[in-house]
Amino acid sequence: MKIKCIYSLLTLLLCGCATTSWQSDTLPSPLSGDEIAVNHSTERILEAREQILNEPKQTKVSAPSVISQGKTEDSAQKPLWPSETGIATYYAHDMEGRTTASGEPYDPEQLTAAHRTIPIGSSVRVINLKTRQQAIVRINDRWGGGGDRIINLSKQASIQLGFGSAGTVPVQLDVESLPSGAQPRARIQTLPSRIEESSAKNQSRLKICQNEADILGLTENFYRNHVTACLSRRE
Predict the structure, then answer these.
(1) Polar residues bias: where (predicted)?
(2) What is the CATH number of domain 77-180+191-231?
Protein backbone atom coordinates (compact mmCIF):
# COMPACT_ATOMS: atom_id res chain seq x y z
CA MET A 1 0.00 0.00 0.00
CA LYS A 2 2.75 2.45 0.86
CA ILE A 3 4.60 1.51 -2.34
CA LYS A 4 1.50 2.17 -4.43
CA CYS A 5 1.07 5.64 -2.92
CA ILE A 6 4.69 6.51 -3.62
CA TYR A 7 4.26 5.42 -7.26
CA SER A 8 1.16 7.57 -7.69
CA LEU A 9 2.99 10.59 -6.24
CA LEU A 10 5.90 10.16 -8.65
CA THR A 11 3.47 9.90 -11.57
CA LEU A 12 1.81 13.20 -10.61
CA LEU A 13 5.17 14.98 -10.28
CA LEU A 14 6.30 13.78 -13.71
CA CYS A 15 3.05 14.91 -15.35
CA GLY A 16 3.34 18.34 -13.71
CA CYS A 17 6.92 18.82 -14.96
CA ALA A 18 5.91 17.85 -18.51
CA THR A 19 2.97 20.29 -18.48
CA THR A 20 5.17 23.14 -17.23
CA SER A 21 7.80 22.41 -19.88
CA TRP A 22 5.20 22.41 -22.67
CA GLN A 23 3.67 25.73 -21.54
CA SER A 24 7.07 27.39 -21.32
CA ASP A 25 7.90 26.27 -24.86
CA THR A 26 4.61 27.52 -26.39
CA LEU A 27 4.30 30.93 -24.61
CA PRO A 28 6.15 33.90 -26.22
CA SER A 29 9.16 35.18 -24.34
CA PRO A 30 9.05 38.73 -22.93
CA LEU A 31 10.17 41.49 -25.44
CA SER A 32 13.30 43.49 -24.83
CA GLY A 33 13.35 47.33 -24.93
CA ASP A 34 14.96 47.44 -28.42
CA GLU A 35 12.32 45.09 -29.84
CA ILE A 36 9.52 47.29 -28.43
CA ALA A 37 11.07 50.44 -30.05
CA VAL A 38 11.32 48.70 -33.44
CA ASN A 39 7.69 47.65 -33.24
CA HIS A 40 6.56 51.21 -32.45
CA SER A 41 8.59 52.59 -35.39
CA THR A 42 7.04 50.05 -37.74
CA GLU A 43 3.58 51.04 -36.56
CA ARG A 44 4.28 54.74 -37.28
CA ILE A 45 5.52 53.94 -40.80
CA LEU A 46 2.42 51.91 -41.53
CA GLU A 47 0.16 54.67 -40.19
CA ALA A 48 1.92 57.29 -42.37
CA ARG A 49 1.65 55.07 -45.44
CA GLU A 50 -2.04 54.56 -44.81
CA GLN A 51 -2.56 58.32 -44.48
CA ILE A 52 -0.78 59.03 -47.79
CA LEU A 53 -2.81 56.40 -49.62
CA ASN A 54 -6.06 57.86 -48.29
CA GLU A 55 -5.23 61.50 -49.20
CA PRO A 56 -7.01 62.88 -52.34
CA LYS A 57 -4.70 63.15 -55.35
CA GLN A 58 -3.83 66.71 -56.43
CA THR A 59 -3.68 67.74 -60.08
CA LYS A 60 -0.18 68.74 -61.08
CA VAL A 61 -0.06 72.26 -62.49
CA SER A 62 2.77 72.92 -64.91
CA ALA A 63 4.80 76.06 -64.40
CA PRO A 64 4.06 78.91 -66.84
CA SER A 65 6.49 79.26 -69.69
CA VAL A 66 9.03 82.04 -69.25
CA ILE A 67 9.65 84.53 -72.04
CA SER A 68 13.27 85.63 -72.32
CA GLN A 69 13.79 89.13 -70.99
CA GLY A 70 13.89 91.78 -73.63
CA LYS A 71 12.34 89.57 -76.33
CA THR A 72 8.81 90.17 -77.52
CA GLU A 73 6.72 89.01 -80.40
CA ASP A 74 7.22 92.39 -82.13
CA SER A 75 10.99 92.27 -81.82
CA ALA A 76 11.02 88.74 -83.33
CA GLN A 77 9.42 90.08 -86.53
CA LYS A 78 11.55 91.27 -89.42
CA PRO A 79 11.95 95.07 -89.77
CA LEU A 80 9.61 96.81 -92.21
CA TRP A 81 12.53 98.33 -94.08
CA PRO A 82 16.31 98.07 -93.89
CA SER A 83 17.84 100.38 -91.29
CA GLU A 84 20.13 103.03 -92.78
CA THR A 85 22.97 105.15 -91.46
CA GLY A 86 24.40 108.17 -93.22
CA ILE A 87 24.29 111.94 -93.35
CA ALA A 88 21.13 114.03 -92.96
CA THR A 89 20.64 117.52 -94.35
CA TYR A 90 17.67 119.90 -94.28
CA TYR A 91 15.77 121.90 -96.88
CA ALA A 92 17.08 125.29 -97.92
CA HIS A 93 15.02 128.28 -96.82
CA ASP A 94 13.97 129.14 -100.38
CA MET A 95 12.29 125.72 -100.79
CA GLU A 96 9.31 126.81 -98.66
CA GLY A 97 6.05 126.41 -100.59
CA ARG A 98 7.64 124.35 -103.39
CA THR A 99 5.72 121.31 -104.55
CA THR A 100 7.06 118.04 -103.19
CA ALA A 101 6.88 114.65 -104.90
CA SER A 102 3.67 113.89 -102.97
CA GLY A 103 2.01 116.99 -104.41
CA GLU A 104 2.07 118.79 -101.04
CA PRO A 105 3.85 122.14 -100.71
CA TYR A 106 6.95 122.04 -98.54
CA ASP A 107 6.13 123.40 -95.06
CA PRO A 108 9.20 123.98 -92.85
CA GLU A 109 7.01 123.82 -89.71
CA GLN A 110 5.97 120.20 -90.33
CA LEU A 111 7.97 117.05 -89.47
CA THR A 112 8.52 115.84 -93.03
CA ALA A 113 11.45 114.60 -95.07
CA ALA A 114 12.62 113.50 -98.50
CA HIS A 115 14.16 110.10 -99.18
CA ARG A 116 15.05 108.25 -102.33
CA THR A 117 13.33 104.88 -101.81
CA ILE A 118 11.27 104.78 -98.59
CA PRO A 119 7.60 104.87 -99.74
CA ILE A 120 5.79 108.20 -99.67
CA GLY A 121 3.61 108.36 -96.53
CA SER A 122 5.94 106.22 -94.38
CA SER A 123 6.82 107.25 -90.83
CA VAL A 124 10.54 107.16 -90.10
CA ARG A 125 12.39 107.51 -86.80
CA VAL A 126 15.52 109.63 -87.32
CA ILE A 127 18.21 109.35 -84.62
CA ASN A 128 21.04 111.84 -84.28
CA LEU A 129 24.02 109.52 -83.74
CA LYS A 130 25.98 112.21 -81.90
CA THR A 131 23.38 113.41 -79.40
CA ARG A 132 20.83 110.52 -79.58
CA GLN A 133 18.05 113.09 -80.14
CA GLN A 134 15.16 111.69 -82.16
CA ALA A 135 12.36 112.83 -84.44
CA ILE A 136 9.66 110.91 -86.28
CA VAL A 137 9.10 112.33 -89.74
CA ARG A 138 6.71 111.56 -92.57
CA ILE A 139 8.22 110.95 -95.99
CA ASN A 140 6.46 113.20 -98.50
CA ASP A 141 9.22 113.97 -100.99
CA ARG A 142 11.99 112.38 -103.05
CA TRP A 143 15.65 113.25 -102.87
CA GLY A 144 18.72 111.55 -104.25
CA GLY A 145 21.24 113.32 -102.06
CA GLY A 146 24.78 112.55 -103.03
CA GLY A 147 27.75 110.88 -101.46
CA ASP A 148 26.64 109.47 -98.11
CA ARG A 149 23.67 111.85 -97.69
CA ILE A 150 20.54 109.76 -97.22
CA ILE A 151 17.70 112.08 -96.08
CA ASN A 152 16.64 115.71 -96.44
CA LEU A 153 14.68 116.98 -93.45
CA SER A 154 12.27 119.83 -92.87
CA LYS A 155 13.54 122.75 -90.83
CA GLN A 156 11.38 121.74 -87.85
CA ALA A 157 12.80 118.19 -87.92
CA SER A 158 16.36 119.56 -87.98
CA ILE A 159 15.59 121.69 -84.91
CA GLN A 160 14.14 118.71 -83.04
CA LEU A 161 17.24 116.67 -83.91
CA GLY A 162 19.58 119.37 -82.59
CA PHE A 163 21.34 120.41 -85.81
CA GLY A 164 22.20 123.79 -84.34
CA SER A 165 24.48 125.67 -86.71
CA ALA A 166 25.60 122.46 -88.43
CA GLY A 167 24.31 121.81 -91.93
CA THR A 168 24.62 118.04 -91.62
CA VAL A 169 24.59 115.39 -88.90
CA PRO A 170 25.14 111.61 -88.91
CA VAL A 171 21.84 109.80 -88.45
CA GLN A 172 20.20 106.40 -88.34
CA LEU A 173 16.87 105.79 -90.07
CA ASP A 174 14.36 103.19 -88.82
CA VAL A 175 11.02 102.86 -90.59
CA GLU A 176 8.16 102.86 -88.06
CA SER A 177 5.27 102.31 -90.47
CA LEU A 178 4.56 101.94 -94.18
CA PRO A 179 1.50 103.25 -96.03
CA SER A 180 -1.22 100.77 -96.91
CA GLY A 181 -0.25 98.59 -99.86
CA ALA A 182 3.48 99.37 -99.68
CA GLN A 183 5.75 96.33 -99.90
CA PRO A 184 8.85 96.01 -97.68
CA ARG A 185 12.05 96.13 -99.68
CA ALA A 186 14.71 93.47 -99.11
CA ARG A 187 17.62 95.80 -99.81
CA ILE A 188 18.43 99.37 -100.75
CA GLN A 189 18.86 99.79 -104.49
CA THR A 190 21.91 101.46 -105.95
CA LEU A 191 21.51 104.85 -107.61
CA PRO A 192 21.42 105.17 -111.41
CA SER A 193 24.18 107.18 -113.06
CA ARG A 194 23.98 110.91 -112.43
CA ILE A 195 24.65 113.48 -115.12
CA GLU A 196 27.99 114.98 -114.24
CA GLU A 197 28.19 118.72 -113.66
CA SER A 198 30.87 118.98 -116.32
CA SER A 199 28.47 117.66 -118.97
CA ALA A 200 25.29 119.26 -117.59
CA LYS A 201 25.82 122.37 -119.74
CA ASN A 202 25.39 120.24 -122.84
CA GLN A 203 22.08 118.79 -121.57
CA SER A 204 18.64 120.36 -121.66
CA ARG A 205 16.98 121.38 -118.42
CA LEU A 206 14.27 118.77 -119.02
CA LYS A 207 16.89 116.04 -119.43
CA ILE A 208 18.57 117.01 -116.17
CA CYS A 209 15.22 117.01 -114.30
CA GLN A 210 14.32 113.61 -115.73
CA ASN A 211 17.69 112.29 -114.65
CA GLU A 212 16.99 113.47 -111.10
CA ALA A 213 13.61 111.72 -111.14
CA ASP A 214 15.26 108.52 -112.37
CA ILE A 215 17.85 108.69 -109.59
CA LEU A 216 15.02 109.13 -107.10
CA GLY A 217 13.22 106.07 -108.46
CA LEU A 218 10.03 108.05 -109.12
CA THR A 219 7.15 106.77 -111.25
CA GLU A 220 3.84 108.11 -112.56
CA ASN A 221 2.56 111.19 -110.67
CA PHE A 222 5.63 111.34 -108.44
CA TYR A 223 7.82 111.46 -111.54
CA ARG A 224 5.75 114.22 -113.19
CA ASN A 225 5.53 116.28 -109.97
CA HIS A 226 9.27 116.17 -109.51
CA VAL A 227 10.04 117.12 -113.11
CA THR A 228 7.56 120.01 -112.97
CA ALA A 229 9.06 121.28 -109.69
CA CYS A 230 12.58 120.85 -111.07
CA LEU A 231 11.80 122.88 -114.18
CA SER A 232 10.41 125.72 -112.04
CA ARG A 233 13.61 126.06 -109.96
CA ARG A 234 15.86 129.05 -110.47
CA GLU A 235 19.19 128.27 -112.11
Answers:
(1) 59-70
(2) 2.40.40.10
